[in-house]
Write a structure and sequence with these properties.
Elements lengths: L1 E2 L20 E6 L23 E2 L11 E2 L2 E7 L5 E9 L25 E4 L8 E3 L4 E3 L8 E2 L4 H10 L13 H6 L4 E2 L24 H4 L14 E2 L23 E6 L1 E2 L6 E2 L6 E6 L23 E2 L8 E5 L1
């Protein structure tokens, strides 16, 4: 169910009685400092109004609808000076039914600014922006993903929740000051990334993700880690030991050798007497003739990176304005 508040479709004036041309109306969740609450053009709560809602040149507030319950409002002029602020303003409704009764809609059950969806498609989706590291800002900001007044709620939310997101010209004193200055805010960059959960999420870290292997701080919002491939270093290869000798336990083998002159037997060799004579034969000298030969291994493998990605399908990530 939905309803509205008495400010809807009224003309507002400043303290001097002049129409509040270019004024802005903020609808905020009751009991909070500045948490935005969505307002809509229709009673079905499907077509979102800009945040804040701009007043026209005559200072008129557009018609709008909000979820049943109470809201907080802040009305300010075009320079940001607050003209009216009030909490726990009752939403008059319901917008359908027989004139009474009906259940109250909990605004927390609606899709909130900053919520993400995944869509099997491309391009723009009404009420959302793509998480592509492009920028959002006011209509005068020149932002690359979306430059429109309806980006303000998300601009303020992201500015406060993720200090790593870049702001054109540098961050000012407050999110509202940067918005009013027509700065651009970079959207979170989800291009090519799969979802992962923070390792703590309000609890103590689970240790399922660690900086040593993840590659980033696993308890920082938006931290990046992992990769699609890896090349193993020497320290990452399983330990293998190659050693051994030849001929120690099986002494019978042959060698080529060159004799000088000989008389009688092999022990009577006089080196250099007869050059160029060569012969060979079996070593049958038994254990006393055992000896060793060193050997070395052959290097194999190309050392190329290998794939670390599991099966997955791709889609487009969006965030609610």
């Amino acid at each position: 169910m939905a309803g509205t508040i008495p400010l809807s479709m009224t003309q507002q004036f400043d303290v001097y009685g002049k129409p509040l041309s270019g004024g802005q109306l903020y609808i905020i969740q009751a009991g909070t400092v500045s948490t935005p609450q969505d307002a809509f053009q229709d009673t079905g709560l499907t077509i979102k109004m800009p945040y804040p809602m701009p007043l026209d040149a005559a200072g008129r507030v557009p018609q709008f609808f909000v979820a049943d319950g109470t809201v907080k409002i802040r009305l300010q002029d075009k320079t940001g000076v607050v003209q009216l602020a009030s909490d726990s303003v009752l939403v008059i409704g319901p917008s359908a039914g027989g004139g009474g009764g009906g259940s109250t809609v909990d605004p927390t059950q609606l899709i909130q600014t900053g919520n993400m969806i995944f869509r099997h498609g491309f391009g723009a989706v009404a009420g959302y922006v793509r998480l592509n590291n492009m920028t959002i800002g006011s209509a005068a900001s020149g932002a690359t993903e979306r430059a429109n007044a309806d980006c303000q709620a998300l601009f303020l939310y992201l500015w406060g929740i993720d200090p790593t997101l870049a702001v054109s010209g540098g961050r000012g004193a407050t999110a509202l000051a940067d918005w009013t200055a027509n700065k651009q805010l970079s959207l979170p960059d989800w291009r090519g990334y799969a979802l992962g959960a923070l390792d703590d999420m309000g609890n103590t870290p689970s240790g399922r993700l660690t900086a040593a292997f993840f590659g980033g701080n696993p308890i920082v919002l938006g931290a990046v880690g992992g990769g699609q491939s890896v090349a193993l270093g020497v320290s990452e290869i399983p330990p293998l030991t190659f050693s051994g000798t030849t001929g120690n336990d099986s002494p019978d083998h042959t060698h080529g050798y060159t004799l000088g002159s000989q008389s009688g037997n092999n022990s009577d060799v006089t080196p250099g007497s007869v050059a160029g004579v060569s012969t060979s034969g079996s070593n049958t000298g038994g254990a006393s003739a055992r000896h060793q030969h060193p050997f070395s291994g052959v290097t194999a493998g190309g050392g190329q990176a290998h794939r670390t990605l599991g099966p997955r399908k791709l889609c487009t990530f969006y965030m609610k304005l």
